[in-house]
Write a structure and sequence with these properties.
Layout: H1 13-17, H2 28-39, H3 57-73, H4 79-109, H5 122-153, E1 157-158, H6 166-179, E2 186-189, E3 203-210, E4 218-223, E5 233-236, E6 241-244, H7 245-250, E7 261-272, H8 286-298, E8 302-308, H9 313-322, E9 331-334, H10 344-347, H11 374-381, E10 383-388, H12 394-406, E11 410-417, H13 425-435, E12 439-444, H14 452-464, E13 468-470, E14 477-478, E15 481-489, E16 492-500, E17 512-519, H15 522-537, E18 548-551, H16 555-569, E19 577-582, H17 588-599, E20 603-608, E21 625-630, E22 635-636, E23 640-643, E24 650-654, H18 660-664, E25 666-673, H19 676-690, E26 696-699, E27 705-707, H20 718-741
Parallel strand pairs: 1-6, 8-9, 11-12, 12-13, 14-25, 17-22, 19-20, 20-21
Antiparallel strand pairs: 2-4, 3-4, 3-7, 5-6, 7-8, 10-17, 11-15, 15-16, 16-17, 18-25, 19-23, 21-26, 23-24, 24-25, 26-27
Helix pairs in contact: 3-4, 3-5, 4-5, 12-13, 16-17
Length: 742
Amino acid sequence: MSHKPDLQASDAPIAQALKKENENPSTLKSEVAALHKEAKPQEAGKDLSDPDLYLNREITWLEFNRRVLHEAQDEQTPLLERIKFAAIVSSNLDEFFMKRIGGLKQQVGAGVQELTVDGRTPQQQIEECRRVVREIESKKDELVPQLMQKLREQDIRILSYKELDDDTKRRLREYYVENIFPLVTPQSMDPAHPFPFISNLSLNLLVSLRYPDDEHVRMARVKVPVGHDVKRFLKLKDKDHYVPIDEVMSNNLDLLFPDMEILGCDRFHVTRNASTERDEGKANDLLEMIESELRDRKFAPIVRMVVEKGMDTHRRGMLAAELELDPELDVYEASGMLAMKDLFQIAFIARPELHDAIHHPTDNHILMEEPRRIFYAIREAGSILLQHPYESFNTSVERFIEEASQDPKVYAIKMTLYRTSTDSRIIELLLDAAQNGKQVAVVVELKARFDEAANIRLANRMEEAGIHVTYGVVGLKTHCKVIMVVRRDYSGLRRYVHIGTGNYHADTARLYSDLGILTCDKDTGRDVTELFNFLTTGYTPKRDYTKILPAPKHLKKALLAKIQREIDGHSDRSPGLIRLKTNALEDADIVRALYRASQAGVKVDLIVRDTCRLRPGIPGLSENVRVVGVVGRFLEHARIYYFQNGGDEEYYIGSADLMKRNLESRVEVVIQITADDLREQLRKFLDTQLSDHRSVWEMQPDGKYIQRTPKGPEKRGCQTIMIEMAGERVRHAKASQKNAKM
């Protein structure tokens, strides 16, 4: 029984097209369209180009945030975790305006009228998004006072200034003068002082004031200096009692404006457009271009302002006019706290009884059995599946790089780097490897959104240490997660490879649900060598891959071919089955193929975290499709693609989401998992999530989601069950070791 990812089992036109060589990625769109036309089965009267069959990308992403907000509303969620989810929603919405609304506004400004696959113009999308955002913000503003009251019941208090006694006010004022006041810069607004620059995501005070016996009202802006070592909430004594720094500032304005009469003080918060990417094909120096983009982003147009509810109409209108915003459409009111992402500070208070039970990742059960070098464990097992955060990132991926950096038999280390922490141990290990005489090559993605500056610093640091740093292929983001270690074993050079679904970031590896594989498979090693040769040169000669499916050249057409193969092979005796787990399902070609699969009778299970264009449960179209999403303590980030293939099952994991950008304009890698024990782990992973009735939401045909309710005594969510499964693998391994010694 072959498990190689060849497609010769199907005679469908899509599969046949995969045999073509030297494809040009720029022709992918036209080729896929032609293949769809050839592969099109009877569609029972459904026109698959009908916009009503597709949900909007932006709206479905916002709907995901409704589900996140529900975690903050759910009384079964521990209290400080509820605060965390409220902060996540606030942070997500800021990012949504920076990335998505900012981009849509650019399209409107450029006069773009092209319709999305769901039939909307950029302006229509902006208007619909505004409506949904206002609904979410309203629910959040209603919820937060309730959460504040519950915090008070636990003696965790966020106090207003007027609640403080005189002695506390005096001590706070003294602290403010000594530790914060020197960082504050008031900026007046008058003919001699034009309207000041307002930085992105800043919290600001708009102060109205005048001289005594002078009727002329003056205005000043004061930025709240949150960041670096200054926290939003100032702690009082030894209790979990806090006062927002903006409360302290607004009640001590006499320090900034002595001998002046303070008439009013309003808070406002702004979000700037982050869509400032340039055409890198025209850049002489990619590094210089990215640095220029960062400067552009700093001064990019403001796309949203949030103000306190009840703010004076004149002052609100003045701010909107100066910031070039529509006062009705682009200005949002908050009835409570602004910039609520700062609630992360409160969410991390050390009160274990108000958090989820502490999770300590286990060691991978195979790696814990092998105290010798990790390369022996990989060689003996053939391949090892890693499940983060249930299994430790430090004792698997970091151990892999650490031992490679020290092992005298290791000659070279190559890896891709999309996001990592600024104090990453992985970077230190790569520097050590270079100092130890290894050949180290790192492909750094400079265009990783919001991490550009950090990646530039890391790239410069690595280059100074003698590491070969390249920036990928012009026109393509390098999003794949791949490490290759070249080692001289007893039988000659051997390539050891890690391919993952998540970034090489130790912090997020404890918060995101991801998968990875460690393998010394020869075909995989050859494939990854070809991949790195492509990434470091950009040259696209014939490159044959046998175990991996890279994008943009192969992956999309391969996925379409596999879907078509399920259609062609479906029968009553051998019903087809497709299971896809992804962060997003946005690519219209994939959606159309899945619709056709459902029409042919193939069962389709989709586990989609956020954006999903497909509408399940429509008679004659998608009644064989179910779409679920998981929301829990960990962010779902793994990608798994499963095809039943007439019983010769295929499992794939990798970095690619089912989005047009991932499949057509990024370098992604998906690898087939062929070992039976690893496939069994993936089957359990999918089964556990699909059968969850605690943390799973099921999509309805209109795009709305309904949360499943527990059936019977089982009230654990899938993530809790997977924590227990990881522990069980360790216990079983220890028992096996003990029995082997007896």
